[in-house]
Amino acid sequence: MASILALAGCATTINLQALRAPTLDTLGIQRLAVMPFETVSNTAASRNTAQYATTVATNRIQAANHFTLVSPLIINDARRRGESIENYADALFTGQITRIIDKMLPKPGSRYVDSETGEVEVDIDYYLEVEVELSYFLVRVRDGSLIGPIIRKGRGSDEELFNNETANVTTVANRVVDDLLKMLHHDVAPYSIRISRSLEKESNKALKPEMDAALGYVKGGNYVAARQAYLSIWESYQSVPAAVNASIFFEALGETRNAADFMRDVLGATGSPLAGNTLTRLERELAEQAAVKRFDDMRSPAEKVAYQAVSEVYKVLPREARLWIHNNAASDQNLVNNVIDNMTAAFLSSSVTVIERQMIDLVLREQNFQLGGSVSDGDFVSIGNLAGANIVVIVGITGAGAGRRLQVRVLDIGTGTVIMQSGTGSEWSL
């Protein structure tokens, strides 16, 4: 979990990144085949929309970076041979376009005066409205059990009329499908969200200097010092607002369990409703984390260490970060590329800009430069500037065997300084 400071009016808000479990219970599913969407009606518009929905669903699920996707051709071939598809997939994602309704609806057009009658007339134009309903679910291969379904429906319209009416219906229907499936990854895989915590104000004016001093640490980005300052105010004056703020920084620093334990003590000491509400919120968050951990426990070491890296890097990113993630490993290239792929997907899902590898390659060719093991920080800064990055995340491996760990270094291109270096704890083990 990482945090970003935001000022909204007079309130100071701490934005945190948090993971959530998917809507559907996809625990244990690693190999997933996205089967073509089916249709209830056999119209051209329905067939075209089903084909488009299949493409969108595949892209959404692939972007979640949680499953190994299996081609539906492999599943169909196995079925034709009478072979068990359990050898190839854990589950099948199946969707259906259950309804497409298109209507031409009137829309008042321009007003004009009839030259013969002198009466005001109104041109009547028509526009196309399309309603789409679809559903999707997963089927576990081992026992045929269903997970779902999810049913969604929506409408779209187009005020332009085309000669090819079928193409026009399909165009609008596809836009509706885009909207209906935009949150598909939330239904099938763990996902990242941003949650906000507002700092409390102390009504006791005598504590204002100390509360202001603590807020100064917050605005300076020193969350460890801010937490300690609020803890000191709580210990000295039993200020519940200060205690709540301290709990926020426990949470912002990834210590939600400590935040809950602390607020439980505050509630016991004061009986404050504010402390009680904060504890309830923290317990809900712990329950969310426990649900996600069930999925996390089944991830590969590369996926786990990638999440660890993203969590730590996110803490030091500027507000408008543009990342270049560089594979600096001397060996285990495939493993490091796997980690980087997972990191890239996580950053993109949190709306962090990641510079494409093709852009870096283009800069290297134009500069006739080869990235080797002796690249200096100055070289990284120069290349990053040319590629439009403001942060370089340098990823490598240190150690071997049981001692092999991911090594991550974050370089601020603007200042040329290292702003984050990974540790040697077990959380970095590969």
Q: Please give the largest β-sheet.
A: 6 strands, mixed
Unreliable sequence segments: none
User: How many helices in DSSP terms?
Assistant: 13
Structural domain count: 3
- CATH topology of the largest domain: the name is Double Stranded RNA Binding Domain
Which second-level CATH architecture of the largest domain applies?
Answer: 2-Layer Sandwich
CATH class assignment of the largest domain: Alpha Beta
Report on this model:
The chain has 430 residues and is an alpha/beta fold. It folds into three domains: 120 residues, Tetratricopeptide repeat domain (Serine Threonine Protein Phosphatase 5, Tetratricopeptide repeat, Alpha Horseshoe), CATH 1.25.40.10; 159 residues, Double Stranded RNA Binding Domain (2-Layer Sandwich); 128 residues, Rossmann fold (3-Layer(aba) Sandwich). The strands form three sheets. Strands 3, 4, 5, 6, 7 and 8 form a six-stranded mixed beta sheet that branches. Strands 11-10-12-13-14 form a five-stranded mixed beta sheet, with helices on both faces. The longest helix has 24 residues.
List keywords for this structure.
430 residues, alpha/beta, Serine Threonine Protein Phosphatase 5, Tetratricopeptide repeat, Double Stranded RNA Binding Domain, Rossmann fold, 3 domains, six-stranded mixed beta sheet, 14 strands, 42% helix, globular
What can be said about this structure in brief?
By secondary structure, this protein is an alpha/beta fold. The protein has helices at 44-63, 72-80, 165-180, 184-188, 208-219, 223-237, 240-252, 256-270, 273-296, 301-314, 333-349, 357-367, 377-387, and strands at 3-8, 11-20, 31-34, 38-39, 68-70, 91-113, 120-140, 146-158, 191-198, 322-327, 353-354, 391-398, 405-412, 417-421. The strands form 3 sheets. Strands 3, 4, 5, 6, 7 and 8 form a 6-stranded mixed β-sheet that branches. A 5-stranded mixed β-sheet has the order 11-10-12-13-14, sandwiched between helices.
